[in-house]
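Deviation from plan, reported transparently: zinc ion complex.
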Amino acid sequence: MKIFNCHTHTGFSHDGKGSIDEICESAVNNGLIGFAVTDHLDCEYSDDEAMIRNIASSFEASEKAKNAYNGKLIISSGVEIGEAIYAPEFAKSIISSFDWDVILGSVHAVRKKNYDMPFSVIDFSLWNEEMINEYISQYFKDMLETVRSCDFDVLTHLTVVLRYIKYKYSKPADITSFYPIITEILRHIIASDKTLEVNSSGFADGYLMPDIEILRLYKTLGGRRLTVGSDSHIPFDIANGLRDTVNILKAEGFEKLTYYIKRTPVEYEI
Ligand SMILES: [Zn+2]
Ligand SMILES: [Zn+2]
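Because the crystal trials were delayed, the predicted structure below was used instead.
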């Protein structure tokens, strides 16, 4: 089975560990055909000079690894841009400053009054159903705006907000009522020739991002292009959940997956 992991983090991400060399070794040991280095650039911290330096170092390191692992691994130099709608000019300037292979578009925080910090640090334990629904609604609105107005190739971990609300804080979170806006997001990805990511980082905990129902909806709407990503933050985790995820996608009738080189999609049979 061929697998290209289109979403990984290194020690150049604030929450990542490990060098690109260690990730390359792990990728080879796990039989991947390649991977994209996609360290974090969170636009709400656009004045964080260390983050900007780290992104430059990440790009440089992955370009070097391309030579070092030539013939063994396909390496794609990328970046995961979070909250681009907060600082669109900043996002554009980072995109144009490097010869990227792939840009991931992400939402890790939403524009909700008093709760605009990343949702990974919010304590949802005392939130009632109405507050939870408002928050999820804002997540999808921000995602739709990101899809409509920002430059990226792959939409990452759609529904990641549920990782915290549903899986960390065990809040009942039924997203059925958000299907109209989810449909709009998916339609826009398809029409603008972008790609939807299937993120396997929650696989061990029993969920995919997005879930099978949303992947089926994507297919029904005409969506064919998918990447898979483990969203690993340490080298050892690079292949976590990927094989099972690809098997699920095969069973759902997806025959090809995608990676990006010079921001151009490359399809491969799975
Ligand atoms: Zn992310
Ligand atoms: Zn990530």
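Residues 12 and 164 are 24 Å apart (CA to CA). We consider this an acceptable substitute for the interim report.
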